[in-house]
Amino acid sequence: MPLMKKNNIPADIEKLSFEQALEQLENIVSKLEDGTIQLEESIEEYTRGTLLKKHCEAKLKEATMKVEQISIDKDGNISKKDFERDK
Asked: What is the CATH code of the structural domain delimited by 6-80?
């Protein structure tokens, strides 16, 4: 089992961009849907898929937090609060 990072996400998944993780997740779903892989591999792929999903959700949450920290005052001036990533 690969080293686990925060939120029990393996290090190899943690380093993926949102797009890379989503692509891998789509490939896993496709394999599982076509039903041509063995049971043991299906279980492994499903497990990896759940970790990829969790990683994608975390990336989306992080992006949402960044967007939410941009504000516009009544005069239309845009301000941005520094983003701090959860540790």
From this structure: 1.10.287
CB 80 within 8 A of CB 42: no
pLDDT for 1 beyond 50: no
Query: Which 8-state DSSP code applies to residue 10?
Result: B
Residues 6+ apart with CB under 8 A from 65: 83
d(C-alpha 67, C-alpha 84), whole Å = 12
Give residue 64's pLDDT. 84
14: left (phi over 0), alpha (psi -120 to 50) or beta: alpha
What stretch of H or E contains 79?
strand 78-80
For residue 5, the Cα-to-chain-centroid distance in whole angstroms is 13
